[in-house]
Amino acid sequence: MLIEPYTAKHWPEIWDILRPVFRAGETYPFAPDIPENQARMVWSDAPMATYVALRADKVVGTFYIKPNQPKLGAHVCNCGYVVDEAARGQGVAAQMCVFSQIEALRLGFSAMQYNLVVSSNKSAVALWQRQGFDIIATLPKAFNHKRLGLVDAHVMHKFLS
Amino acid sequence: MLIEPYTAKHWPEIWDILRPVFRAGETYPFAPDIPENQARMVWSDAPMATYVALRADKVVGTFYIKPNQPKLGAHVCNCGYVVDEAARGQGVAAQMCVFSQIEALRLGFSAMQYNLVVSSNKSAVALWQRQGFDIIATLPKAFNHKRLGLVDAHVMHKFLS
């Protein structure tokens, strides 16, 4: 698997991966009916850097890195990761997470924080824990899950080194 | 004390209150040298609603309310408050906080979350606790305090009713 910086040519494949995830409304807080141009803005324009994971030239996953706060909190980064449904369970997210930590250090960040890990997304919670992230908060009823209604969400954190 | 919605005529007075607070770099994460137009954007344009606290027609405090996350997390609001240095210790922040909770409910929010209450700002932490907010996380070294360097920051939360 190769991981490389996003370029505009990747967008159609990325949108094919993001669209069903956002439409499902189970893991990301964006409006499930978010239009493509807004999704592109939040995923590829607003972040500091966006990446694609490629297997045989096909995009199988994508993630972004951005500062989690303005200047005086900008040493902590935030990332979002999505894996193509057909490529789940094959370690793609774990590899992207490892790579993102190296990139984050290179970009000058000293810690990584996920602000809203949906508690019902147990595979994600377990994956980030295996990657060394701690649950440092449980935000009560913070996520309005499309199927389950209001569920808790975690803040997860790791110092980078 | 009167609390009313912000209008553009209040901006010069608000900026006189915000400027020394942002320049100090001890409580808000914005770059201490944030230019006025950016400060105006984050304080009065980006939020859902901004308010001023008036005493004898003079602005003595200001706060904003905005959703803390996009759609599926948008039932939780976030607020920021600043009191004029000359009006501190007179209950202005407490009154703004009470008012903001009523307004937040009216705007349809069901909880309020502060994402980055700087731990060294002990009077603020104590004030929000008196207002019924719980510390639900301590983000390690999350704030680069201009005098103290890296200090912890709290996530504080309250259900509204």
| The CATH C-level class name of chain A | Alpha Beta
Work out the count of structural domains of chain A. 1
Largest interface: A-B, 36 and 36 residues
* Spans of at least 5 consecutive residues with low confidence of chain A: none
Quaternary form: homodimer
Helix-strand pattern of chain A: EHHEEEHEHEE
Give the integer mean of the pLDDT values of chain A: 98
Q: What class would the helix/strand composition of chain A place it in? A: alpha+beta
Percentage of residues in DSSP E strands of chain A: 35-45%
- Count the E strands of chain A: 7
What's the helix count of chain A?
Answer: 4
- The amount of helix of chain A comes to 25-40%
Largest sheet of chain A: 7 strands, mixed
Question: Looking at the structure, what is the overall shape of chain A?
Answer: globular
Please give a structural write-up:
The structure is a homodimer of 161-residue chains. Chain A is α+β, with helices and mostly antiparallel strands and 161 residues long. In chain A, 30% of the residues lie in helices and 37% in strands. Chain A is built from 4 helices and 7 strands, in the order E-H-H-E-E-E-H-E-H-E-E. The first copy, chain A, is globular and about 40 Å long. Chain A binds chain B through residues 25, 28-32, 34, 69-76, 110-111, 113, 115-116, 136-146, 150, 153, 155, 157, 159, and chain B through 25, 28-32, 34, 69-76, 110-111, 113, 115-116, 136-146, 150, 153, 155, 157, 159.
